[in-house]
Design brief:
This protein is α/β, with parallel strands linked by helices. Helix content is 39%, strand content 23%.
Length: 192
């Protein structure tokens, strides 16, 4: 069984879709939800789904061992960032090289980097009168919103779109593609 950990900071709608997707899988198991925000929706999802959760703290994450021993002890093979707002520290990337995936709600390299998260992204896209936006699913390396792209998918941005209507379109793309891309990447890595 490949053991997945999902790292999330918010509502966790992507985490839920990933959990649903792998619920009956004989090869992939969502073993852990790691979260940096007490009270975040994703923690309620973990509880309802009977999945172990881990509340991560700033000090240990950035200045300590980044929970690597905990992850190894739980035999986590692969990490999925799903709306996780903290930058992944080098010690965690070194422990999971090529085995951390992220989703970004825009077409990187545009609208990435520091401060570009949540509605800030969609507001910037609309302010620049972009005709399309979308999602980028990529492996994580030491640079913010960087690393090999696994998939980009697009949606139109219309003149009447607001940050929230665009966010809805983006979420639909994320919910459809993220679980499938994770599954495909894990299959490829297994055979490489
Ligand atoms: C998603 O739009 C993701 O791209 C971004 O944060 C959002 C998380 O949403 N990184 P949710 O918590 O999965 O609903």
């Amino acid at each position: 069984m490949i053991q997945l950990a999902i790292f999330a900071s918010g509502a966790g709608s992507n985490a839920q879709k990933i959990i649903d997707h792998f619920r009956n899988s004989a090869v992939i198991n969502v073993a852990l939800i790691a979260c940096n925000k007490p009270g975040a929706g994703v923690l309620a999802i973990a509880q309802r789904e009977g999945i172990a959760s881990l509340l991560i703290e700033k000090e240990a994450f950035f200045k300590g061992d980044a929970y690597v021993p905990v992850l190894k002890e739980k035999e986590i093979d692969f990490i999925v960032l799903a709306g996780f707002l903290w930058k992944v520290p080098p010690v965690l990337i070194a422990a999971y090289p090529g085995k951390i995936v992220n989703i970004h709600p825009a077409l990187l390299p545009k609208y990435g980097g520091k401060g570009m998260y949540g509605n800030h992204v969609h507001e910037a896209v609309i302010a620049n009168k972009e005709k399309e936006s979308g999602i980028t699913i990529h492996l994580v390396d030491e640079l913010y919103d960087h690393g090999r792209t696994l998939l980009q998918a697009t949606c139109p941005v219309t003149a009447t779109d607001t940050a929230s209507s665009l966010a809805q379109k983006i979420h639909l793309l994320e919910h459809y593609y993220y679980p499938r891309v994770i599954e495909q990447e894990l299959r490829l890595q297994k055979h490489s």
